[in-house]
Each structure stands twice: as C-alpha cells, then as structure tokens.
Design a protein that fits this description.
The complex is a heterodimer. By secondary structure, chain A is mainly alpha-helical. Chain A has 15 helices and no strands. The termini of chain A are far apart. By secondary structure, chain B is mostly helical. The two termini of chain B are 36 Å apart.
Chain lengths: 282, 206
C-alpha cells in the first residue's frame, strides 16, 4: 500500500473495514509517518462532525416514522400500575406480618432445639446414671448360683422344698419361691441366699437386703456375692448414704474381691459429676 | 423477538454494513422504518424502560435515541450480524437507558460485553461543560460549511468511495477527489481556529 492508498484508506481503517494484513500495514505506517497520524486525527474529527449531522438527520426522520407511543405506553403501564398497587397493599401489611413471625420462628426453633437437647441430655443421663440404669447394668444373673443349689453332694440339694423353690424361682414364680423358702425351718446359707434373690426379684428390696446381710455374716461361699447384692439393694432403695459408700470402699480396696472391677465401675458412676450435676435419682 | 416487517435477512444486513456506501444507505431507511412499525420491538423497549424506573417520556426518548444510535453504529460498521437486528436495536436502547440511569443516580452498571458502543455523548459528568461547549463549536463549524462540502463529506462518512460519490452526484471521480480535498482543507482551518475542539476530541480518544 503506498502513501496515497493510506490516505484513501483512512476511513476504511477508522471503520474497521480493512482486512487484517491491510490493517497491520496501516498501523505500521502510522507509527512511522507523523503526517499520516495527524491526518488520521483530522479525519476522526471530520467523521465526528458528519456523525452529528447524520444523527440530527435521523432524529428528524424519526419524528415522522415513529408513531405516537402514548397508546402503547398506556397499554403497558396500566397492568404495571395495577400490579404495583396490588403488590404494595398486601406487601406492606404482610411485610410486617412476615418480619415478626420470621424472627419469632427462628427464636422458637432455637428454643425448641435447646429444649430437645436438654431433654435428650436428661434422658441420656437418666439412662446412664440413674439408680435403675446402674442396677440394670450391674445386676448379674444368679442362674449360675442356682446351679450350685442342685450340685451333687450338696446336702442342701436333698431338701425337696428347696428344689421346688428353685424351680419356682426359675419359672419366675417369686411369691411361691418365697413361701417355700420361708417354710423351710432350718434356714441355711443357700436357702437365705435364694430367698434374698426371690425377694429382690419381687421388689422387696429391704427384706432382700436384710437377708443378704445375714448371708454375708455367715461368711460362707456366698459372702462376696451377698456383699455385692447389698449394694444393688441400696441403689434400688436409693439409700446411698455413708454406709453405702463404706460398703463400696470395702470392696474397691480389696483387689481380690470377686466383684472388685464391677464395684469400681459402680463407684465411678455413682460418684460421677454428671450424677451430682443433675441430681439424678430413681 | 422477531419483526416480520423487516424486509432483509440478518446476513444481508451484515454484508451491507461491512461494505458500507450505497448498499448500506439503500438498506438503512427501510430497515429503520420497519422497526418503527414493529409493535413487538417498540413494546419491548418501552416495557424495559417502564419496568426499570423510567417514565413515559423516558421510554419515548430512549426509543428514538436508540434507533438513531443504531443507525450510527451501522454506518460505523459496529454490527457483526451475530444477533438479529431487532435484538441488536433493543440492546442499544437498553444500554442507553442504563447509561442514563447511571449518570443520573451514580449507580455503576457493567457495560455489555457483546457490543462496544462508542458514543460521543457518553462522557463522564465532570466533562459535561466542556462537551456542551465543544458541541456548540461543532455546530457552528457545520454551519460554516457550504452545501457541497456537507454533501460530499457526508457521503464519505457513509462509506461511499469517490467513484460511488461521482455516480451519485454525476461527477467524475477526480473531480470528487479534488472537491473533497478542498473541503478538508477548509475544515482543517476551522478546527485550528477552535483549539477547544481538538481538546474535546483528544478527550474522546481516552
């Protein structure tokens, strides 16, 4: 492209009508030729002047070409205004209604959550730390002890009443078992032990405890078991006094005791912060 | 949005815009008249303005300004044919309205990324006074130009080649060249007499 062409192509350059190679060549020529740069600047001004003329020309033409939009505007505005009025009326009233319940709703949800959480914690504490829960956790099935009752060679097994009582106990006929056992005139350690368990199962925890004390005092083979079940009776009776704590301590310091581990756990739970914090009881 | 009144395809319009000159001039007037008859287009523009905090007068102004600006953009080869002409025209109107709102309320709008409009009137407010003075000078210069120069330079602006202008005005091509050159010399004199104009156009380049 020679200089003459550059001059002729200024308008094409300014309106982006040159192809890429021509445009690149033109830009390079502009960098090298100050006169061309000045001419481009002058052409820009000229184009702006002409643009104003064309703008005015079409503003005049449009006055005739564009129909009056007033009817169209009215047609569009009417539903718009009506809609706005409709939205504003209930919106104003409902805005207040909506704001208040929303806050209340959040507060209620938070309060409900805390309440549920509290109830949940209470429930868990009750299940884990109440006397009932502890007893259920630490009560040991005396089936193996009852098996002792029928062991061969045990003079106690010869007593048919005792065997009947044992059978009644196994069939959960505790009242019958108690009646049979109390009818035995010569009460021994086994009879008393089974009687205490029958009374325990029937819910007569005080009588059961007294019998476990007597079994303990006999210092026989059921001594340690009797000591252990005394603790359970105390829990059932909610008599967690100094005597109870002494009984706990007596077993926990005796590492050889058969129920040493169980009583250690029991002591931990009975004396735990959770129990004292919530004053959990039966 | 589709205007049945438009007698040209999108491709025909894009081709005429790219070529400029007589082909574009012959297309623009029928195109604008068709848009003026297109109820869908007019309703869309009016609706947009009214739904965006404009009043009736704003809607009418934007419709008119938008169409004028669309014409300028077509002559400046800013339409690439990637959208239908009615959607393009609507985009111009939308941009003008958002621009006006931004200037009035100092809210920033993101400029549309698909169309780049170089509006002479789109200047920051702090240059408004300078711009008004410059526009006064522009019109005084146009007033000084004779009819022939206005006609010739206008046709050059519309993308007519010297040959096209010769055919239009029944003149030889060389005569057209000489006359255009003479008109430009006079114009340069008027511009030199008004340094404010140069400053205005230097500002418009930034």
């Amino acid at each position: 492209m020679d200089k003459n062409n550059y001059t002729q192509n200024i308008d094409a350059f300014l309106t982006n009508r040159l192809d890429p190679e021509e445009k690149a060549a033109f830009e390079k020529a502009m960098e090298e030729d100050e006169a061309l740069r000045e001419e481009v600047q002058d052409r820009k001004i000229e184009r702006s002047l002409m643009q104003q003329m064309v703008r005015k020309e079409y503003q005049e033409k449009l006055k005739d070409w564009l129909p009056s939009s007033k009817d169209l505007i009215r047609e569009i505005k009417q539903p718009l205004d009506e809609g706005r009025k409709e939205r504003e009326k209930p919106a104003r009233a409902s805005a207040r209604r909506i704001q208040l319940p929303r806050r209340l709703l959040r507060l209620s949800l938070a309060a409900s959550f805390l309440l549920l959480l509290g109830l949940g914690i209470r429930y868990w504490l009750n299940n884990s730390y109440s006397n009932e829960a502890l007893v259920a956790q630490f009560y040991l099935d005396p089936s193996s002890d009852l098996a002792d009752v029928t062991r061969q060679g045990d003079p106690n097994t010869t007593d048919p009443t005792l065997n009947q009582a044992r059978l009644a106990y196994e069939q959960k006929e505790y009242t019958e078992a108690i009646g049979l056992l109390e009818s035995i005139s010569n009460q021994n350690e086994t009879t008393q032990y089974l009687l205490a368990h029958s009374q325990y199962q029937q819910g007569a925890y005080q009588e059961a405890r007294e019998n476990f004390v007597q079994v303990e005092n006999r210092a026989g083979r059921y001594r340690e078991k009797a000591q252990y079940y005394q603790l359970l009776c105390a829990l059932q009776l909610d008599q967690l006094d100094e005597n109870f704590q002494d009984q706990l301590k007596a077993i926990t310091v005796d590492e050889q005791h058969s129920f040493h581990q169980q009583v250690l756990q029991m002591q931990r739970k009975v004396n735990s912060t959770w129990r004292s914090f919530t004053s959990v009881s039966r | 949005m589709k205007c049945k009144q438009i007698p040209f395809t999108q491709e025909e319009i894009a081709r005429a815009v790219q070529r400029g000159g007589p082909e574009l001039q012959n297309l623009i007037d029928p195109l604008v008249q068709a848009l003026c008859k297109c109820q869908v287009f007019i309703k869309t523009v009016i609706s947009y303005v009214l739904h965006n905090k404009g009043n009736e007068q704003d809607a009418e102004d934007i419709l008119q300004e938008g169409l004028v600006q669309m014409v300028i953009n077509l002559y400046e080869n800013k339409y690439k044919g990637d959208a239908s002409i009615e959607n393009y025209a609507f985009g111009v109107c939308k941009f003008l309205w958002n621009n006006r709102r931004r200037k009035n309320s100092k809210i920033d709008y993101a400029e549309p990324t698909d169309w780049k409009f170089q509006l002479e009137i789109d200047k920051p407010d702090d240059r408004l006074t300078e711009r008004s003075k410059a526009e006064e000078v522009i019109w005084s210069i146009i007033g000084k130009m004779n009819k022939t120069c206005k006609k010739l330079l206008r046709l050059v602006y519309l993308g007519f080649s010297y040959q096209d202008i010769g055919e239009e005005l029944n003149l030889a091509e060389q005569t057209v060249k000489n006359k255009v050159s003479g008109c430009r010399k006079k114009l340069r004199t008027y511009i030199k007499e008004n340094p404010l104009l140069k400053i205005y156009f230097e500002l418009s380049d930034t």
